[in-house]
Amino acid sequence: MSNKDVRFKIAPRIADELEDGQVVNLGIGIPSLVNAFIEGKEVYLQSENGLLGIGPPPSQDEFDIDLINAGKEPVTLANGAALFSSADSFAMIRGGHVDVAVLGILQVDTRGRIANWAVPYQPILGVGGAMDLVAGAKKVIGAATLFAKDGSSKIVKELTYPISGIRFIDLLITEFAVFSFNKEEMVVNEILVDMSIEELSDKIGIPLKWRELVG
């Protein structure tokens, strides 16, 4: 399965976690695909550059170069959408008014701390809203392919990339499994492929436990 294909496996699984009435911020990368899979739910999508009420992904003839999200991707506006300053948007995030943040990640440690804004020795384009969202959102979902391009696992015992915040994320959704973090311990909620938990543990190189066995 190609990397593009697995992204479209992860995004709908994330959409399943969202609930009616939630204010949700979708980050860059895999999170930005989630909007296309939100069906039958009234979810209010928020963007750091000052949008609340992002609509469905635009068709080719709906593209508006002046209407973009924080990742500079074209968007549409849902009925009742609001436009406001970036300062107000970050006040919303820092004030705890975002229910769910879905963030792409580079690494996550086994306690649930993430790195998602910088790679050592590579140019930094900007942290964006990553640190604010990690600290301010009521729930944080990490979205990522399980392995990097070099084949290394993105789940590590200790982060080697710059940390995004001391807050632990709630869920990590990959193409292989859904993980949660219980009392600073990573557990498996669901395996999404034909693989045992022992095989998944061997593939990652970290012992794993089922959530129900941990309590």
UniProtKB/TrEMBL annotation:
Stored SMART domains: CoA_trans (SM00882)
Top-level taxon in the UniProt lineage: Bacteria
KW Iron-sulfur (keyword) present: no
Cited Pfam families: CoA_trans
Keyword Transferase in annotation: yes
Coiled coil, from the record: none
An annotated Gene Ontology molecular function: CoA-transferase activity
InterPro entries in UniProt: 3-oxoacid_CoA-transf_B (IPR012791), CoA_trans_fam_I (IPR004165), CoA_transf_AS (IPR004164), NagB/RpiA_transferase-like (IPR037171)
PROSITE patterns the UniProt entry points to: COA_TRANSF_2
UniProt keyword terms in alphabetical order: Transferase
Protein family per UniProt: Belongs to the 3-oxoacid CoA-transferase subunit B family.
PANTHER family registered for this protein in UniProt: KETOACID-COENZYME A TRANSFERASE (PTHR13707), SUCCINYL-COA:3-KETOACID COENZYME A TRANSFERASE SUBUNIT B-RELATED (PTHR13707:SF57)
Protein name listed in UniProt: 3-oxoacid CoA-transferase subunit B
